[in-house]
Design a protein that fits this description.
The protein contains 13 helices and twelve strands. Helix 11 (268-279) links the parallel strand 9 (251-254) and strand 10. The chain is globular, with a radius of gyration of 19 Å. With 359 residues, the protein is of the alpha/beta class. The mean pLDDT is 96.
Length: 359
């Protein structure tokens, strides 16, 4: 593992280790995967305008999110079914993220329960990602459990009323192999999602139980269920960002679900600045999608993100080396970011602004 020098090399190593169905599930997107590719290209369209003769002998990557200090402005996104990559799944991620001093966002679709994950790293910071179910009692109970397990925020995914057409999953008959479950839903009898000989089990499963009628009224209802800060994941338009702030949310994640929902949706890196401008500091803004290098993180921060989220990169690390692999990926991105900040003449996160970038 030590010979792997960047996230792309981790992906190549992970591909050799993972079952083809699992690799395709993690790597794939919707339809022609145009947005998957454009997420990466969006960061590459920006160029730096570095400043010289700046004292960069001391660099500082620390910041805060929702008032909580973190050592690195890189958060692990809520990816489902981590145990497909490694037997320790989300537990390994929890320990690695806590060691890195940042935040883990735990998916509703985790292969360990939200309580087990919290117990794996009691000192860690974590948010709970939530989907809304047709049975509102399920949704309410998940929120209550997250609160009881001392999660620091609820992160509502708003861009997935249905699953995008993920043709790799359809072709592979994607489902969970024997022994793996939606652990958070065991008490509701909704934990099984077996592999199938025809089509994607995930698509059918979600079509049967997720609420396709989620609206702004649902956001208002959810705010009544908990005093935890609420973050909306999947915002791409300035209008939606302004309305979210009017609803009292604490944060927004600029995201197109990693290109897995509407193919042809705007890249996160292209949507970020307009969302930041629209809310003018009234909520924190985060971004995910296509971030593979520390220099990508620097660009996102320059465009106004409080922190970035990575998904596929930490899954590749998990597949290659479990907890140590996730730690290695986070460390690599941190080293790249620190070097890029120094070379750009911006040694602290507070020094970073849009004057650093040009297209």
């Amino acid at each position: 593992m030590n010979q792997l020098l960047n996230v792309n090399e981790f992906e190549l190593a992970a591909r050799e280790l993972l079952a083809p169905m699992v690799y395709d599930y993690y790597r794939g997107g919707a339809e022609d995967e145009l947005t998957v590719a454009d997420n990466r290209a969006a960061w590459q369209r920006w160029r730096f305008v570095p400043r010289m003769l700046v004292d960069v002998s001391h660099r500082d990557l620390s910041t805060s999110v929702l008032g909580q200090p973190i050592r690195l402005p890189v958060i692990t996104a809520p990816c489902g079914f981590n145990a497909l990559a490694h037997a320790d799944g989300e537990l390994a991620v929890a320990r690695a993220v806590t060691a890195a001093g940042t935040v883990q966002i735990v998916s509703t679709a985790a292969t360990f329960s939200l309580e087990e994950i919290a117990q794996a790293a009691p000192a860690g910071l974590r948010w709970f990602q939530l989907y809304c179910y047709r049975n509102r009692e399920i949704t309410a109970q998940l929120v209550q459990r997250a609160n009881a397990a001392r999660y620091q925020a609820i992160c509502l995914t708003v861009d997935a009323p249905l699953v995008g057409r993920r043709e790799r999953d359809i072709r592979n008959g994607f489902g969970l192999p024997a022994g793996l479950r939606w652990k958070n839903l065991e008490g509701f009898g909704l934990d099984r999602m077996d592999t199938t000989a025809e089509g994607s089990a995930l698509t059918r499963y979600i079509a049967e139980i997720w609420d396709t009628g989620v609206t702004w009224e649902t956001v208002a209802w959810l705010r009544q269920q908990t005093a935890l800060p609420l973050i909306l994941k999947g915002i791409l338009s300035a209008d939606d960002a302004r309305r979210a702030v009017d609803c009292g949310v604490a944060g927004l994640i600029v995201s197109n679900h990693g290109g897995r929902q509407l193919d042809g949706a705007i890249a996160s890196g292209d949507a970020l600045a307009s969302v930041v401008d629209a809310i003018a500091g009234q909520a924190e803004v985060y971004v995910d999608g296509g971030i593979r290098r520390g220099s990508d993180v620097l660009k996102a921060l320059a465009l106004g993100a409080r922190a970035v989220m990575i998904g596929r990169p930490y899954l590749w690390g998990l597949a290659v080396g479990g907890e140590a692999g996730v730690r290695r990926v986070l460390e690599m991105i941190a080293v790249e970011l620190e070097l890029a900040m120094a070379l750009a003449g911006r040694p602290k996160l507070t020094d970073i602004d849009r004057s650093l970038l040009v297209r």
